[in-house]
From TrEMBL:
Any Pfam family: Ank_2
Gene3D superfamilies: Ankyrin repeat-containing domain
Protein species of origin: Aspergillus eucalypticola (strain CBS 122712 / IBT 29274)
SMART domains (UniProt xref): ANK
Top-level taxonomic group: Eukaryota
ANK repeat extents: 1-32, 33-65, 66-97
Keywords annotated in UniProt: ANK repeat, Repeat
Protein name: Ankyrin repeat protein
Keyword Ribosomal protein: no
Length: 97
């Protein structure tokens, strides 16, 4: 299943993400596919949410079941600003899919 933080990231609800992170809630919970909230925010190109999660110390190199990091989807979806932000934080750009 997914946490409230997952759902807020998927919906692009930055105020709710900020509220939840201020509680605090775990920043890197895993869903059934081993994906963190950062994975979904990055995939959808929600830079503000990506920034909030990184500020809260989200793991930018977490791996899902397919061994993909949060960098894979935004790179494929053309979310250049998210890709830049993740690379600035040290995401491993050498991983292969």
């Amino acid at each position: 299943g997914q946490t409230a933080l997952h759902k807020a990231c998927i919906a692009g609800n930055a105020p709710l993400v900020k509220y939840l992170l201020d509680k605090p809630v775990p920043v890197d919970p895993l869903d059934n596919s081993q994906r963190t909230p950062l994975y979904f925010a990055a995939e959808k190109g929600f830079l503000e949410i990506v920034n909030l999660l990184i500020k809260a110390k989200a793991d930018v190199n977490s791996l899902d079941r397919r061994e993909e990091t949060p960098l894979f989807k935004p790179a494929g979806n053309g979310h250049v600003n998210v890709v830049r932000r993740l690379l600035d934080e040290g995401t491993d750009a050498t991983r292969l899919d």
